[in-house]
Amino acid sequence: MSVGPVGHGELFFVVDPSRCIGCRACVQACEECGTHRGRTMIHLDEVDRAHTTQTVPMVCMHCADPTCAEVCPADAIKQNEDGVVQSALKPRCIGCSNCVLACPFGVPKMQTDLDMMMKCDMCYDRTSIGLAPMCASVCPSQALWFGNAATWDATRRGVLVDAWLFGRQHVRTKVRVVVDDASAGPVDVLAGAALGDWRDDPFGIAELEGAM
Amino acid sequence: QGNGQGGREQGHKCDQLPGNRDITNPEHRAAVASVWGCDVDEIPGKGLTAQEIMDAIHAGEIKGLLSICFNPAVSLPDTNFTAAALDKLEFYAAIDFFMSESAEHADIVLAGSLHEEDEGTSTTVEGRVVKINAAVTPPGEARRDTDIILDLAQRLGRGHYFEFDSNEAVFDELRRASHGGTADYTGITWQRVEDEMGVFWPCPEIGHPGTPRLYENGVFAHPDTKARFHAVTYRPPAEVADAEYPVWLTTGRVVSQYLSGTQTRRIGPLVAQYPEPLLEIHPILAGEHGIADGDRVRVTSRRASMTVPAKVVTTIRPDTVFIPYHWAGSRAANQLTQRALDPLSKIPEFKVSAVRLERVGSGADTTDVRDMELRTGDVDAAGQP
Question: So what's the ipTM on this one?
C-alpha cells in the first residue's frame, strides 16, 4: 500500500480529480484570503477543453522532502514539523525562480509585481487548528477533502497514493491523490508514454482488454 | 429562483395558494380566506404567467405593473419584445436590490433587500425548510422587502390584513394558511428550523417530526395510494432548424453567473472567471463556416442578431450551438430566443430556437494568420524574394 503511515486522528488533504466539476469555487475562496487577496494559490487546470470538460485542481503537494526548499539559494522556503511546506519568506526570497523551475508539480508561481514566489501553504492558519483549508471547505463535490483516516474510510471510496516517480526522482507527498489502482505502485509520470495519444482511447479500454 | 420551491408552494405562483393549494378550488380558497380573515371573493382568480404578462401588455390588457426582484429584460425570451412591453406600460414600479436592466424602464424604483439583508426561510428541492439570517442591514434608504410590502399594503387600504410586527409573524400566519395542504408547514417554527438544521414538510402538527422522504413504504398521495406515470406524446419544438436558419441554438448557464446577473455581474472575480457570453460550437460546424476558436461570429435568429466569440469544442453536438444568457442588451442570448410556451407549465421554450451563423472577424486580442500578408519562399538579407 503506497499510503504512508498516518497518525491516529491526523488530518490530511486529499485531491480526487475525478470529482472535480470545474466550478472554481476553490479558486474564488482561496483568492479571498487577506494575505494574498485577488491572487489564487490553487490552480484549476483544464486538461484539454477542446475535447473534454475535465478539470483538475492543483494545490501544493507538500512534499516530505520539498524540492523547492532544496534548490532555494536564500533558504526562504521552510517546512513545519507536521510537513506543511510554507510559501517563500518575504524577507528572504530573491525572486530567482529556482523553485518555480524545480518543483516537479509546477506549483510555485513567480509573482512578478512583488518579485517574489508565492504558493499554497495549506491555509496553515486554519489547518494548524483543525479547520479545513479554504478550498476544501467550499468544494461542492469534495474533490478537495480534509479530514482524518477514520472519516475517510467511513465516507469515501478510492485508493490514496502519496508516492510519485518523476523520472529518477522519488517524491513522497503529504497531500494524497485518489487513483484507480494503487497496486500499480507510485504514480509514474513517464509511464504510458509509449501508449500513444490518450484521445485514441480516452477510457483506457485497450489497456483493460489487454489486462483481461 | 433560490426559493422557487418554497415560494411556489406557498402561493408565489399565479395559480396557487399556500400549502400547494389551487387558487381556483373553492375548498382551498375558503380554507385560506378563513386564515387571512378576508372574504373568499377578495382572493383573485388564476393570474398570468411571466411571459403571458408581457403578451397582455402588448395587447393593452395590462397597463400597470409592480414587480419585485424580476429582470425580464434579460431573463425572458425575445428581449426586444420585452423591452417594448415595459416601455408600453403606463405605470411600472420595480422593487429590486440593484438597478437592473428592467428597473431602468420603471417609473419608480424602490430599493429593496438582498437575502443577506433579510430574515426568513427558504425551502430546498427536498422539501426542507431552512433559515436565512441577515448578515448586514440594507444600506442608505434601501429597506427590507417585507417592510416595503407592508407599507404598500397600508397605503392601498389593506393594512388590517397585514398587521405583522416581524418577519416571523408573517411566517407564523403562513404556517396556519398552509395547514391541511400538501406542503403543510403547521409544525415548522423558526426555532425548530434552527435547532434541527431544517424541517421537512409535511409537518401537519406541532411536535410532528417532519417528513424527510415522501411516499415511504410505497404509499403515494392518490386515493388508491399508487403512483401515477404519465405517458407523453412527443411534440416538436415550436421553431425548428430549417433551410433559412439551419443551426439549433440552445441557451443555458455558466457556473460563475446567476440568473440575469443583477448580483453576479457586479462581483469582480465572478466576472473575471467568465466575462462575456461565448458561442460553444463543434469543430465540424465551425469548419463549415470557416470559424476558428476565438473568432467573432454573428448569430442571427428570426428575432435579432448578436456577435459573440466562438469557443470551438467537441463537447457539444455538431448541429447545435450554445450561448449562456446572463448578460444584457447586445450580449443577451435571449434576444435570439422565441416566445412559445409549454401548454401546461407556460415555461418559454428557451432551449430551442433556430439560427444561422456567419464569421465576421477574428478575435479582438489575436492576430489571425488569415489577416496577415505573408510571403512564402526564399528571401534575401534585405527581405526581398
Answer: 0.83
